[in-house]
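hiii, so i know i said id send this last week but things got crazy w the move. better late than never?? heres the sequnce for the chain we talked about at the cafe, plus the structure i predicted for it. fair warning i was half asleep when i ran it
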Amino acid sequence: MGRPQRTDIGGFVYHVLNRANARSTIFSTEKEYQDFEKILFEAVEKFGMRLVSYVIMPNHFHFVLYPQIEGEIKKFMHWLTLTHTQRWHAKTKTIGYGHLYQGRYKSFLVENDAHLWTLLAYVERNPLRAGLVKSLKDWPWSSYYKRKFGTPLQKKLLATNSITWPNNYEELLNSTEEKEKLDKIRNSVNRGKPYGSNSWTDSVLEKFGLEITDRKRGRQKKN
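okay and structure toks below
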């Protein structure tokens, strides 16, 4: 099976994620989280990427990105993961010991409506869902924490005002997640499928000539 298709078009919101090779832990100390977060904000400044939200977990990360021009995500993610890999290997004295990440990052188009709000909550709730903290205020390595307690520069580097947020976002963030919505997001990740309403998803698949993955049958084109 070939690599999943990806778009990289400006003016669309994307859910972007990557995992450590073999899902190994790559962030286990405060310094390791800080180092990656520093690189993340360096990349935001270097490429002018609109970083709407993010969370860094022990063996993976999630971003919600809102690129303005075509090809922006590829450049941003290539520099970020390459820089992090080089610095991580140098500090852990593991240069030449293999890949840090499992492969290419994954990216999925997201409909800019209530689906985006659900995704934002999904991303920022990761530490709660994983049982790492009892309150999101206790997980510093996320956009939620930075919006609340970050430095003026960190708050400025978050593209919080690039989208419209629901008035009840805090309630959405702290409410129990609906299984159906969780399953739909996970289906998007597993199948390489845009995340949104059925009509929007169909139109995006047709517009960009994308295919989605059927684990049992391989790749099937969505017309």
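btw Residues 72-92 form the longest helix (21 residues). thought thatd interest u
miss u guys!!
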